[in-house]
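Morning F.,

Quick status update on the modeling queue. The single chain you submitted on Monday has been processed. Sequence for confirmation:
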Amino acid sequence: MSFVAIIGSGPLGGAIAHKLAARDRIRELRLIDPEERIAQGKALDIRQSSPVEQFSTQIFSAGALAAAAGAAVIVLADDGAGRGEHTGESGLAMLRQIDGFEARAPIVCAGASQRDLIARSINELHVSPTRIVGSAPTALESALRALAGLSMDVSGVEVALTVVGVPPRAAVVAWEEASASGQPLSSFVSPHEIAALNARVPELWPPGPYALASAAARVVEAIANGSRRRFSCFVGINRNVAAMPVELCEDGVRRAIEPVLTRQERTRLENSLAKSP
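Structure tokens below.
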């Protein structure tokens, strides 16, 4: 398997690199940042932790964006100089440059504020919607699973639910198909508790860098290893971008999956898509 390139060695990029290395399912990582000394320092810190955390993933640093050429997956994270997530015109210019030397590798936008960048890359740079995804909705989904589990006094691992739409205000939770321990979640959680969980969605956004890093690591591994696991990701839908459950493959998005929604949930989803740029 080829390597995974992480663009940006800020708090998010560094956390993604560490998370992927510690999971030990990717052979090689490249942490790339114009502030190469920052990338070098973080790569060194991660390498030095390998004997304690017992992983064999190799991690290197680079200052040139071209070091991402040939990657199995390219992750867009944040700037090592402290300017935050790669977004806006600078983020678009970076994606244009990446597309110039690497037109095949799937791109994972790991930040919570990169939905607009995904939309612009599809509509202005004509990047295929199946090639670029945003992993942040998976972090929101994990937080909701934990809260739902807490309301039932069980682990969030036992809860399965899906987040669609446009967080924070236009996110829709597919409670109709949600489950706990293989049983309908509605068997354990009352309607007023579900309403309370819905009300907490806006305050859970944006997720912090460690939650975003964990989500990105799982999505990257699914792409790199050709897993068919389902994740809630930002994905292109009819010239718009919203969170939807997707099945991933080595080329990016294999398919988007239509969630089971109530009539009210479907109306909210359609409204969020109609109102969002």
